[in-house]
Amino acid sequence: MPELRLLALYPEQMNIYADRGNVIFLRERCRWRGIGFSYAAAGPGEGFDPEAHDLIYIGGGQDRDQLMVAEDMRRTKRDAIAAALADGASLLAVCGGYQLLGSRYQLGERRIEGLGLANLETVREEGERLIGNVSIEVDLGSGPRVLAGFENHGGRTYLGSGAEPLGRVLHGFGNNGKDGYEGILRGNLIGTYLHGPLLPKNAWLADELIARGVEHSSGTRPDLEPLDDALEEAAHAGAEDAARRG
Catalytic annotation on 95? Predict the structure, then answer.
């Protein structure tokens, strides 16, 4: 039986805006198709085997949680995450998790050192938080699609030279409210500010992550059976419309 092996990092500390709903959604879409699903978690002080997982997930958290998680993740998990990515595993990081992929998160005089796995940095600048519904156009290899969700971040993220954004902002703020881009895409690494949770509103992205994960574990990309996505399509349309209306 094909299987998706998911590892959630800091699921208790990094779960603002019900981001663990992304994990539940992946589990159920696997179950509906007869695909095996295994779940593991690694919290503070815990390492993991980089060869044992197909998809690594990091949710969002508040600044105080990020500070603790960043220090622990650099010490106990950074090398394993890098090894897993090099082996072809995927990573999805949302909001706070996304910010920690870069070199730093500057909070006034306080500096949170990141993992240095993506060419980006985040700075808390003067101005209001970037809050609201958001939609972006992305292309993961099968043509342009729209992701829709919710963003709420005080930090402004800037991509470094040569870094590829996840998508182009259609409505909302995106990484920093200035350059018109959102998230980062580096091979099988995806970072984004879209909360909500993200995947129930964007079932096609969930299926792409499942397909990549099963391919990683089995060596063959599956032809996923279509599902009755009437509710998911309605959720996506509602989120996209909310972003369009501002």
Answer: yes
pLDDT confidence bin for 63, thresholds 50/70/90: confident
User: Which of these is catalytic: 53, 95, 171, 216?
Assistant: 95
Decide which of 3.40.640.10, 3.40.50.880, 3.30.365.10, 3.30.70.1170 is the CATH code for 3-245: 3.40.50.880
Give the model's pLDDT for residue 16: 78
Q: Please tell me which residue in 53, 195, 216, 236 is annotated as part of the active site.
A: 195
Summary mean pLDDT of the chain: 95
- The pLDDT, as a whole number, for residue 196 is 78
pLDDT > 80? residue 17: no
For residue 163, give every residue at least 6 positions away whose Cβ sits within 8 Å of its Cβ, in sequence order, or none. 118, 119, 120, 184, 186
Q: Taking the model in full, what pTM does it have?
A: 0.96
Burial bucket for residue 107 (CB in 10 Å: 0-12, 13-18, 19+): middle
